[in-house]
Amino acid sequence: MLATRSILKTVAQNPSSRTIGFKNVAAAPMGVRHFNASPVSKAQSPDAESEILRQQRKFRPVSPHLQIYQPQMTWIMSSLHRITGAAVGGAFYLAAMGYLAAPSLGVTIDTASMVSTVAAAPVAAKVLAKTAVAAPFVYHCLNGIRHLAWDVTKCVNIKDVYKTGYAVIGGTVVGTLYLASL
Length: 182
Description:
The protein has 6 helices and no strands. It is mostly helical and 182 residues long. It is a multi-pass membrane protein. The chain crosses the membrane at residues 83-102.
């Protein structure tokens, strides 16, 4: 279509160009309205084809990202639930592997050594460490209960989803403060 328009535009601007390329001027089409041009097929190496694809990909639109969406409680809490689950589970497995590997590394992990290490730490460090451990644990537990309620189709309308979301956030704050104060 682009080639057709280009040729028609050229012919319209310069009527004598209709005869260009024809040895016999009488054989030149005089009232040509349509011109079918097919691209010349060239065999290309796979590297050249890959380069063409790379060049074309530069001009493709980028897929949507989270930055274009308005932050909503539902997807933020869902993301945090996954993140805290991975963090709590990963910390549990790392602690278990550390406890199992400690004797072979020559490190003593017994109750007396852990109590003396924690007792020597400043109060601010203790509270910060307890908060860092308690917050993801409490959030994941409370949000897990929320998900279990959804599994039995309770509180699934949007009003209740937001209500239970705020309850989980409030419960997380209260539970974290309680566990950090112990």
